[in-house]
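Incident log, structure service

09:12 report received: a user says their structure output differs between two submissions of the same chain.
09:20 pulled the input from the user's history:
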Amino acid sequence: MKQSLERYTHQLIILGNGFDLTQGLKTGYADYFRDKYGDNPSMDLMDNAWDMVLFDRKLHNHSEWANVEQAIREQAIDHEAIALVRKGLNNPNILDTSNLLGSRLANRMASAIDEIQTVGFLQSSINYKNAVYLRFMRSELTSFERSLYTYLKKTVEQTKYNDPLWYTVSADDLY
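09:34 re-ran on a clean worker, output below:
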């Protein structure tokens, strides 16, 4: 076993999620989301903005609601998505039910960035507000990645036979 693992010590191997799924691991985003938030999730209880974004996609029956990379791309470059958050930033303390995601993200930003509550920010340019939003979403991505990492680590540790080594051996065989 040790000898077979040593052959990979100087290689960078990039595998997609399908590799883990083939091993029988529940490592998809939908699995993580269900494990973390249960069957009745609420944006009020979500601890990072990206879970909110993906949950909003689910609420709107987006066919690929759990496609994390697509959600990131849309939030980073889609002018309509950014405009919804800017609308929420106009008054982050008021819940706009017609713009639930924008409102929730604005509220989360306001609790993390004092500047958002100032008149100067409200009067700042659209480009500046967009830049603040993107910086915030980048920092939230770090939080999201940590949470997902914790889930994936737990999933691998709780593999078949409750033996993390099983995954290593099985992955080596599959590779």
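09:41 both user submissions now match this output. Likely a transient worker issue. Closing.
09:42 reviewer note: The chain is about 65% helix and 0% strand. Residues 27-158 form one domain.
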